[in-house]
């Protein structure tokens, strides 16, 4: 549909330009009629859901409105200026260039068919922002207390008690990075809280609608460390990532304690009134997975944790003699590591059994690992659906993006059902997806 809209509008502008040159007339009236008709057609398509409206179409609608207003004003002017081919050509070029610019959101974020939740519950959402008075925000110039924002997804019901699951996003992620996973879990009877690590998240919008973008120094260091090949800087990286982990685990601890406090109030509101605080799970993607795993190790009220393609940095407890020292205390919480193929194979090749996740799993009381063949790091987020172009640039594999998300959701649900709802041992396979499957973006 994106290409149809693009082609039709370019043809419309070209036709108007052609007839303008042929008749030596700016054709203000004809342009007003054409833009009005095209706008009306789009509105009808949006209204009938043939073309679902979204933010992607806002710049295009503004472009059409602007073209209509400009030509309408010129049409109403009494003074008629002589027709000039050069000026007409400039107007045409400007119109086409601004049109292409308005279609950038459609190119970067093309419409797609959403993944429908498979559970029996409808899903509702709420956002809360809490202030941790015990901590100063290291990213605040005014040395203000740390704010933590969380988006809840929960079953639309006023009856029953449901397990709590808290999600932590990756270094370049945001609280909505795994929206379809949250919807799937909530539809099956879970209360999911997706935390936004302010200034670590790509962006955070709190309940006052204040926008906070990711700290530039954090982003720069994250990019640098992600591509680092110099082993001489391992100790420096160890200390930097420790700071990141401390910030994030403190965020999760604070959020969990706050949620538990809400459930103990005299008349807890939604979603707190729905919570079974005897069943708590944590999961996260990338750095968020590492933070979730470390928080679970530090608490005695977490019953299961899932790491989505993240290195368990919390297992690194010290740095001695030129290498990290791993925690030799058995990992105490049921653990599931889900790895992209490139991450898994790279860890085997470079570190083997001494890789953080492999070591933790080998010494855990209850741990499982699985590999998604043909996937890359961002296949464990919704980005490949929302923006295939960006996902391709940032790191996905050859596997079908939609299948990877659906399969991930299935095993996440399977694992949490086992440990948070006592539905028997989880049936997690060693591998998923066929590496020969090609992406369909």
Give a structural overview:
- The chain is α/β, with parallel strands linked by helices.
- The chain has 2 domains: 2-108; 123-432, Rossmann fold (3-Layer(aba) Sandwich).
- Helices cover 44% and strands 19% of the residues.
- The protein contains 14 helices and 13 strands.
- It has helices spanning 2-23, 28-47, 58-76, 85-102, 104-108, 179-187, 216-226, 234-263, 287-298, 341-350, 356-362, 383-386, 388-394, 401-420; strands spanning 123-136, 145-155, 162-168, 191-196, 203-205, 211-213, 275-285, 304-308, 316-320, 323-326, 335-340, 367-372, 431-432.
- The chain has a 9-stranded mixed sheet with strand order 1-2-4-3-7-8-11-12-13, with helices on both faces. Strands 5-6 form a two-stranded antiparallel sheet.
- A hairpin with an 8-residue loop joins strand 1 and strand 2.
- Helix 3 runs antiparallel to helix 4.
- The radius of gyration is 26 Å and the shape is elongated.
- The mean pLDDT is 89.
User: Total strand count, please?
Assistant: 13
Average pLDDT over all residues: 89
- Under CATH, the homologous superfamily of the largest domain reads Alpha/Beta hydrolase fold, catalytic domain
Determine and state the CATH class of the largest domain: Alpha Beta
* Class based on secondary structure composition and strand pairing: alpha/beta
Taking pLDDT < 50 over at least 5 consecutive residues as the criterion, the unreliable ranges are none
GO molecular function: 1-alkyl-2-acetylglycerophosphocholine esterase activity
Keywords: Hydrolase, Lipid degradation, Lipid metabolism, Membrane, Transmembrane, Transmembrane helix
Transmembrane segments: 6-21, 33-51, 57-76, 88-109
Protein name: Platelet-activating factor acetylhydrolase, isoform II
